[in-house]
Design a protein that fits this description.
Helix content is 64%, strand content 0%. The protein is built from four helices and no strands. The chain has 117 residues and is mainly α.
Length: 117
């Protein structure tokens, strides 16, 4: 589905940017995303190599198909990550509400971490 809300788009864009930069390590399909610079450089090289007169519009339309496919793929992943993050935040909020509504069965809880109280 598409996300038309400006707020949603503003939250999805940084996710997509981090995917393109390769800095979002939590995504399993991260390795499938090739470097944008590499895709564009290869397209320019092929265009120049063929010796055809350069037309920017046709270059974008025809030679950057792989780059455009990758951008669509990255957007799909970014939207999925956005949805997962929202679901996680909703789960955490529901758990907090449940804890607030529930009566404690134990009056005190002592937490020890790494041997310290």
């Amino acid at each position: 589905s598409f996300f038309y809300e400006e707020v949603e788009q503003q939250q999805i864009i940084p996710i997509a940017q981090s995917l393109l930069r390769g800095t979002r390590r939590s995504v399993p399909n991260q390795k499938k995303i090739r470097k944008s610079k590499q895709l564009i450089t290869n397209a320019i090289f092929q265009y120049v190599k063929d010796g055809i007169s350069f037309s920017f519009d046709s270059f974008i339309t025809f030679r950057l198909k792989e780059y455009n496919k990758q951008l669509a793929y990255v957007c799909e992943i970014a939207i999925d990550e956005y949805k997962l993050e929202n679901e996680y935040q909703n789960l955490i909020e529901n758990l907090r509400q449940q804890v607030l509504k529930s009566d404690s069965l134990i009056p005190n809880v002592h937490i020890v971490y790494d041997g310290k109280f």
